């Protein structure tokens, strides 16, 4: 499937910051604005960016409206989702993403924003799984921010991943898809369900019990999401928890490997992306090459 690639950003262009999910404080994007301006970009905050309705950044309609306006504004050349949390799937069906087919622009986010990245993949449009403005400036995020800048300005090439004892060697080529495992499971059966056949799937998660990760992997397997992959990239699984009385008996990577061990495709563990400060940007829907051998992994972010 040929994907639409948004054009690289140019100095002087305008970018939007919107909040599809949880609300934020008004000073949460100060560092992001400083960094964007250092990149010579003009920042346009969404109208309801700092709105609050219980835990959400405004009502569903308000959050959808900001995203829709950013999609349709011809002067906006990239859209940054300010943070995750929860709420994107509540409003995603209120948004018409089809204008991006005629005038593509980058949409950036991760975690709960996985729903939007999957929607764009299904429409044949590339997007970016990467650090969000609310996290800019935190200690240790420098590499994540720079990796995002490189993709936005078309300077990216390859990522090298340290070897891991559970890796499965091989070479895979395919569109890179995925994101937060919990959200990917939540999307199954919906209009945003992700077709994974022939793809390189990336997964990550945070703050989950091990048995829940196992349950998600069972669901992914039973729904046909794992069998026909070209390859699997496993990122950060952060702050995993276990039952205090009866442990699960495996760590999180062992759980994942159990459910894909029967398949022939390469598996690369320990990719530095997810809910940690070193959250390297990934071009979702990009045709990539994954090579895994005894020296580790190489993910080449080639254009199709």
Report on the architecture of this protein.
The chain has helices at residues 30-38, 60-72, 88-91, 99-102, 114-122, 142-152, 181-187, 210-222, 252-260, and strands at 14-18, 42-45, 76-81, 106-109, 127-129, 158-161, 170-180, 200-206, 231-238, 267-269, 282-284, 287-293, 296-300. By secondary structure, it is α/β, with parallel strands linked by helices. It has two domains: 14-152, 3-Layer(aba) Sandwich (Rossmann fold); 158-300, 3-Layer(bba) Sandwich (Glucose Oxidase, domain 1), CATH 3.50.30.60. The strands form two sheets. A seven-stranded mixed sheet has the order 6-13-12-7-8-9-10. A six-stranded mixed sheet has the order 2-1-3-4-5-11, sandwiched between helices. α8 (210-222) links the parallel β8 (200-206) and β9 (231-238). α7 packs across α8. The chain is globular. 48% of the residues are buried.
Total domains: 2
3D shape: globular
- Gap between N and C termini: 9 Å
Pattern of helices and strands: EHEHEHHEHEHEEHEHEHEEEE
By CATH, the superfamily of the largest domain comes out as: LD-carboxypeptidase A C-terminal domain-like
CATH topology of the largest domain: Glucose Oxidase, domain 1
Name of the top-level CATH class of the largest domain:
Alpha Beta
* Strand residues, percent: 15-25%
List unreliable stretches of 5+ residues.
Answer: none
| Main β-sheet, spatial strand arrangement | 6-13-12-7-8-9-10
How would you sum up the major sheet? 7 strands, mixed
The total beta strand count reads 13
Report the mean per-residue pLDDT as an integer: 97
Radius of gyration: 18 Å
Domain LD-carboxypeptidase C-terminal: 173-290
Family: Belongs to the peptidase S66 family.
Keywords: Carboxypeptidase, Hydrolase, Protease, Serine protease
Pfam families: Peptidase_S66, Peptidase_S66C
């Amino acid at each position: 499937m040929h994907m639409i690639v948004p054009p690289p950003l140019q100095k002087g262009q305008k970018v939007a910051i919107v909040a599809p999910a949880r609300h934020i404080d008004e000073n949460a994007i100060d560092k992001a604005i400083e960094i964007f301006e250092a990149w010579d970009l003009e920042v346009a905050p969404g109208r309801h960016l700092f709105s609050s309705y219980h835990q959400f950044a405004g009502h569903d309609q308000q959050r959808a409206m900001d995203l829709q306006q950013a999609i349709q504004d011809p002067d906006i050349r990239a859209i940054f989702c300010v943070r995750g949390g929860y709420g994107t799937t509540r409003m995603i069906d209120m948004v018409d993403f089809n204008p991006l087919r005629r005038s593509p622009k980058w949409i950036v986010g991760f975690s709960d924003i996985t729903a939007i990245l999957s929607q764009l993949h299904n429409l044949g449009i590339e997007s970016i799984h990467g650090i969000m403005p609310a996290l800019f400036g935190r200690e240790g995020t420098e590499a994540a921010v720079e990796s995002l800048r490189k993709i936005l300005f078309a300077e990216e090439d390859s990522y090298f991943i340290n070897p891991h004892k559970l890796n499965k060697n091989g070479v895979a080529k395919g569109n890179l898809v995925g994101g937060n495992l919990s959200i990917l499971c939540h999307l199954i059966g919906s209009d945003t369900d992700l077709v994974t056949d022939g793809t390189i799937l990336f997964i990550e998660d945070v703050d989950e019990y091990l048995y829940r990760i196992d349950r998600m992997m069972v669901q992914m397997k039973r729904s046909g999401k794992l069998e026909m992959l070209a390859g699997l990239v496993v990122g950060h699984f952060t702050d995993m928890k276990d039952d205090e009385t009866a442990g699960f008996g495996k760590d999180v990577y062992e759980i994942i490997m159990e459910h894909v061990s029967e398949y022939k495709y390469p598996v690369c563990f320990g990719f530095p992306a997810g809910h940690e400060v070193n959250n390297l940007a990934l071009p979702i829907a990009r045709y990539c090459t994954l090579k895994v051998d005894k020296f580790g992994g190489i993910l080449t972010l080639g254009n199709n």
